[in-house]
From TrEMBL:
PANTHER family: SUCCINATE-SEMIALDEHYDE DEHYDROGENASE, MITOCHONDRIAL
An example Gene Ontology molecular-function term: succinate-semialdehyde dehydrogenase (NAD+) activity
Family: Belongs to the aldehyde dehydrogenase family.
Domain Aldehyde dehydrogenase: 26-485
Signal peptide: none
PROSITE patterns cross-referenced by the UniProt entry: ALDEHYDE_DEHYDR_CYS, ALDEHYDE_DEHYDR_GLU
Gene3D superfamilies noted in UniProt: Aldehyde Dehydrogenase, Chain A, domain 1 (3.40.605.10), Aldehyde Dehydrogenase, Chain A, domain 2 (3.40.309.10)
Alphabetically ordered keywords of this record: Oxidoreductase
Protein name: Succinate-semialdehyde dehydrogenase/glutarate-semialdehyde dehydrogenase
Catalytic center residues: 264
GO biological process: gamma-aminobutyric acid catabolic process
Length: 489
């Protein structure tokens, strides 16, 4: 266990399973280790939920469901608001924990602490604005009452890269809608989610609300723990954020019970620099779009498509900026870029760079791991990358920027859309006509025009094609936890 975390935080940090308002050990007492990506040192041993623990958690969510859906929307909203306030008040602690388990720099972790908390604030406000409709039927014979009910107990499976925000982006709308939840955080970084769950647990307790509204089952045996839930008729909803491969397999399992599903999956975002772009702005945008969380973001720019006239200059300037960055443990002062999540992530990124160079790409910056403990990879710029290189076709999930030149707008759009993914896309142009065309034709659920960042709790986050189903955030996010019932009066 590590000293960069405050003793007060460590002493109150749960490391067990949360089932029906109680933290406890896993059946059989199994635990797994959570390591610091900056050093490889073990931070905590966490309870390793078995399938029977997951079933207990679902039973608690199911039993709490009638009371929670009957809890007035205002009270549900006030609970979320209180948790938001508590997380913001403890943003430094939350950030320290995010850095410890995910590696990101303290500044980025603090940004995530506020961004993650903001989902709770937004859904505190949405809880009292759930949609509905009453009208006279067109034939005039009767009235139609269309109301929205909570869909029922939900399984929320989250990734490690934004351990707070990916959890609150699901918990906020689920609770606002009146659904009870079982959260399964990623075993590489489960602790921040557990901290939020503890704040929720204590707020529920203080307000006399049902204990089983929020349950958490960290586990290193994800499939074994979640498969029985997907086959259990008490579960009515699966919301998953993670890779497309795992999402596809969960969709197959969810089909057996025709579960409601939301899927936030992988991406391969193009970052287009048009010939009329403001190059200074494009470089700034590229730094954010590529290097947020060291490139380990689903919306990270994966391919830089730059007009022939700017490609060399863009790549050179980006390489200079990358070379000037200071790599190191995210908790250290003055560090710009933290480690990747684990050694396997470094291996994967290195293999993508090796594939590109074997196909003729040149390394303008980086292109190697850092010779020190921890999972560090130098921020890398590649030029002369062909569209068939793995680095251009697969989700990199690391600090590598392949630059690909294009000749005209048609080619840029065709290259951008030449992927099975459709999560985010970015484009820099000073032409309104070009911006309008890109907004129409890019096949992505989120498009940043002259912006390297699209994430916002109040906006619909989600993808087209194999990047997912449904939306999180904004007004749309709560819809994922509601079903429609029509009463003919
Ligand atoms: N679209 C989005 O909003 C979004 C956001 C964040 C991350 N992501 C994607 O997530 C991926 C990175 O995260 P990751 O490595 O944690 O993804 P992952 O798919 O490996 O794991 C995601 C979650 O699923 C669990 N899991 C893995 N295999 C499982 C199985 N067979 N059954 C049940 N659960 C299983 C993991 O333990 C984790 O909790 C990237 O592809 C990234 O693009 C997408
Ligand atoms: N980076 C995303 C989540 C995906 O990784 C966000 O901004 O919410």
């Amino acid at each position: 266990m590590v000293t960069a975390l405050s003793p007060a935080l460590v002493s109150h940090l749960p490391t067990g399973l949360l089932v029906d308002g109680h933290w406890g050990p896993a059946t059989g007492g199994r635990t797994f280790e959570v390591a610091d990506p900056a050093t490889g040192d073990v931070l905590f041993d966490v309870a390793d939920a078995a399938p029977e623990d997951a079933r207990r958690a679902l039973a608690a969510a199911h039993d709490a469901a009638p009371a929670w859906r009957a809890t007035p929307p205002r009270e549900r909203g006030e609970l979320l608001r209180a948790v938001y306030e508590r997380l913001v008040a403890r943003a430094d602690d939350v950030a320290a924990l995010i850095t410890a388990e995910s590696g990101k720099t303290r500044a980025e972790a603090r940004a995530e602490a506020l961004y993650g908390a903001d989902f709770l604030r937004w859904y505190a406000e949405e809880a009292v604005r759930l949609p509905g409709l009453a009208r006279t039927a067109p034939g005039g014979a009767n009235r139609q009452l269309v109301h929205r009910r909570p869909i029922g107990p939900a399984l929320l499976i989250t990734p490690w890269n934004f351990p707070l925000a990916m959890a609150t982006r699901k918990i906020g709308p689920a609770l606002a809608a009146g659904c009870c939840v079982v959260v399964k955080p990623a075993h590489l970084a489960p602790l921040t989610t557990m901290l939020v769950a503890e704040v929720l647990r204590s707020e529920l307790e203080e307000r006399g609300l049902p204990a089983g509204v929020v349950n958490v089952v960290p586990t290193s045996r994800s499939a074994a723990a979640t498969s029985p839930l997907l086959a259990d008729p008490r579960l009515r909803k699966l919301s998953f954020t993670g890779s497309t491969a795992v999402g596809r397999s969960l969709l197959e399992q969810a089909a057996a019970q025709v579960l409601g599903v939301s899927m936030e999956l992988g991406g391969n975002a193009p970052f287009i620099v048009m010939p009329d772009a403001d190059l200074d702005a494009a470089i700034e945008g590229a730094m954010v779009a590529k290097l947020r969380n060291a490139g380990q973001s689903c919306v990270a720019a994966n391919r830089f498509l730059v007009h022939d006239s700017l490609a060399r200059q863009f790549a050179r300037r980006l390489a200079e900026r990358f070379d000037a960055l200071r790599l190191g443990p995210g908790a250290d002062d003055g560090v710009d870029l933290g480690p990747l999540i684990d050694p396997a992530a470094v291996e994967k990124v290195d293999a993508l760079v090796a594939d590109a160079t074997a196909r003729g790409a040149q390394v303008l910056a980086g292109g190697e791991r850092l010779a020190r403990p921890g999972s560090f990879y130098r921020p890398t710029v590649l030029t002369g990358v062909g569209p068939d290189a793995r680095v251009a076709r697969e989700e990199v999930f690391g600090p590598v920027a392949p630059v690909i030149a294009f000749a005209d707008d048609d080619e840029a759009i065709a290259l951008a859309n030449d992927t099975e993914y459709g999560l985010a896309a970015y484009a820099y142009t000073t032409s309104l006509a070009r911006a309008a065309r890109l907004g129409d034709e890019l096949e992505a659920g989120m498009i940043g025009l002259n912006r390297g960042m699209v994430s916002d709790a109040s906006a619909p986050f989600g993808g087209l094609k194999q990047s997912g189903l449904g939306r999180e955030g904004g007004e749309a996010g709560v819809e994922e936890y509601l079903e429609t019932v029509y009463v003919a009066l």
